Amino acid sequence: MTLAGLALAQAVKARALELGFDRVAIGPATLSHGADFERWLDTGRAGTMEYLAETRAERLDPARLLPGCRSVVAVALNYAREDDGAEWRGVARYARGADYHNVMRPLLHALRDYVSAAAGAQSRASVDTSAVLERDLAAAAGLGWVGKNTNLIAPGLGSYFFIGLVLTTADLPPDDAVPDRCGTCTACLDACPSAAFEGPYALDARRCVAYLTIEHRGPIPDEFHAPIGDWLFGCDVCQEVCPWNRHAPPARQAVPRSTPAPCSSATSPPPRGSAGSARTRI
Known about the structure:
This protein is an alpha+beta fold. It contains ten helices and eight strands.
């Protein structure tokens, strides 16, 4: 680790915050849960999300997206809100603003360009529509820890945030990983309306209300009609009960509010394949 490398990393972080991201961390372009992801796919827990298996190789190796990738700049964009009215009932918080892909992409592109110019490197911006395990890479960078509800949780920020990545061939000094701070708490596991968690850190997407109301293709099995209840698009229950979200700060104006449509389709769905939050599906 050199002084030049440390200065470059600090400059990259400062630029990310200037652009409007709420948190930034730097880590290696390596995965720690690749084997878990493969087992999860092989046991059918991804449900009808065939695209995850189709892009398995790319998701397991960031260098397939950016040859020579050595480092990852992970950023968080807060989407928590305080003042949503009854018209948003049944819609997950992440979907109550403008399409976050359109909001984050220009910011990530600006950060990508900065990293490339400052480091003399090749870089690529990535959101959750790219074939990358963004939560795993963000956790390795120290953006937060993977909670028992499989969301990424950041101290002082909670889990109501989107993840963005800049993959780069630059060799940037990594930050320390954040230790797991879930402790003995099982609030998220106990509150899940559809019993989607097989245990801590283990989500079966086929039972998840968010999956069933957004990603699932085909009729929803009768057994889930009651657990889904009033949820129309997504589900926030496992985040609502998380103690780390009790004092999460509200989002700044980086994610503009969208206008709710009639309750049957309260928001336009994001592109298929988006996680919609700080969660991946393992």
